[in-house]
Give the backbone structure.
Amino acid sequence: MSKKFALRHTTVAVASLITLISVTTVQIATAAEKANKKPAGTYVTGDFHNHSTCSDGSLSMQKLIDKSVKTFGLDWFVQADHGGSSARNCTLREDPFEPVAPALGLTTSSTGPFPPATYPTGGQPATTLKGPNQSWESTLPGGRAAIKGDGTAVPKRMWVWQEIQEFQYKVTEDESRARQKPIWIGLEQNAPGHEHVSMAVLQGQRPWPQSGVSGNATLQAQYEYCFDRSDTDTSRGAENQWDCSVAGTTSTDALNTTSRKISGTNSSATPDLGHRKTIEGLKWLKEKAPTTSYFVPAHLERAGVYNPTGNRGFNIEHLRAFNNTAPNIAFGFESMPGHQAADTRGEYSPNRGASLANPNGGIDSVGIGTYGGTGIYAAKIGGVWDALLGEGRNWWFFASSDYHNRGSFGADQRESNQDFFPGEYQKDYVMARKGTNNLSAEAIIDGLRSGNSFAGSGDLIDRLAFVACAANPALPRAAFKALVEKAAANAALKNGEVRMNGCATMGEKLVVAPGADVLVAIAVRDPQGKNFSPYSFPNPSLKQIGITQPLDAPVLDHIDVIGGNVTGIVSPTDLAKFAGQEGTAAASNTSAGIKKVFNSTNWTATSDGLRVMSYRIPAVKVSQYVRLRGTNLPASTPSETDANGNPLNDYVLLPYFDPSKTLPEQPGKVVCSDAACPAHMRTIDGVKYSSYDVSAWADLWFYSNPVYIEVTNSVKVVGAK
């Protein structure tokens, strides 16, 4: 439980919202709820993309899990490191002499127990002789002989499939049972032809609450061997003798006779081969684990546009192809990436990968930077996400922490100039239908797949009930509005959903007759108290416009209701509509726009911290969708939002890039003038500017997944239940 939530346990009734509701109205509502057969559930928080010493992270699995589920209160956690090979024995814990920090497992000082300079890779003093940086070779019984993997390096590296199968799984299963929370093994796949994908195969794994059953992560290990482009092993998984072929595939790409896997990536010699291999991986998941796996492209704008002869980026046609191939597995993207405290937020930038030694050696992230911490694919109204929703697809929005390290700070320090811990800054809120008393990994994956979820940063909100309801002709308009608003408020207080016949929530569709009125109702909780920010001085971004608001106590300023028309699934043969980079017609939905803005002038605030609101869509004629976003920043906040409240590009030009490079946007800089503004801020000519973690805590957003409205004589919404 976060600090912010722990300070508030009040559950005052929401009766003040409604002055009078007739007995008939109450009877109708009760009957509707009884008639609804959807199992009850609860929104639970988690993160499926982060890194430990099993790849390029700074902390052991044990400490990373401890920080995520204990310090920052996540309900579920996925251990998801990169594929390929690694030299570090990632089952080792931190050294026993590592200091135990005070409350929340964090220090309050920027100097910490050791000076930041003694954390060259984050997490350990430079003098460490044992611990997470110790090699497999020096710690395993049998040394080099126990490692089945890449023996060309010194020290010898272990293939990640062996790590997953023989070592990582045992640690995560033990942690899951000890903490009584679902914790399982996933993978940040180096996707052939593209960049990274957060994925997992739960099949075979037995995290809590399952007991008395021996589990394994063999299918997860096999997927890594078969389909991660950094895995060049040809052993067929040593004694496993894996075969990566897919039953009934139509692929013409031959399996290597030695490795039994497609051995190739995008290159000038074999354009698109890597992408085709990724598609084969989805077919494999569909065959082996159709209901217990997921495949979610990560920080997908960061590596630039797709290159058929290289391995980077995702254009909209690839997202469509993934969803077409396996709609129950490839069902969304991480467009709110991790690395939110980094110098370039999300590590998005022009000429990404450039350096002083090679100033033109990088590639441009799509959109150049993030927009309020979100990539352009989701942040731009009418862009890639709206284009996919305009087809009626099950394509959902997720966030991730992508934890590696805290930059120049140690793991137990509260400041960061690189990453936040899972649960510290970003959270995915997912509907789990089995309840928190018996929460299972299967229920969480079902929740991810359903689209009944929302994501946000900085604990801007912690509860959301969002529905579209067909107007009831038996009730007066005002009574129906009061009824649905009350149902939404009660659902938000219970951390659940509205379960009334005639209503649909996130990831679902409401089917109505042509000309019907639809009521959209929203209840969010703006939690009182503090979030996990270590800073209590005024938000520098808001200070520009005369608003004094502590960084650790953000207030929701407004919510945008965004909507667009559904025009149906486009065919891969229609390239004009199916394929194209961001900004092209194929990656756009011109019908999308802001349909309604709610703020303190037109929502109802309750003593429970709720904000309750609704609006009517009269006489609907075409199938459509509605989704939400909200922020702590008013429209026209300099360097943060435009006049319509849209987030501006977070990118700020760095000194080592060519200043003559033409950029689409370069927002101004926000001065950090408070005396408490920390020393690690970017300083130019003696002036501190909001940057790193301060700029992230200043600029907070949440996004909901859509509710679809299908009109019976209009386009069918095929991707939602």
Residues 1-28, 96-129 have pLDDT under 50 and may be disordered. Residues 190 and 336 are 19 Å apart (CA to CA).
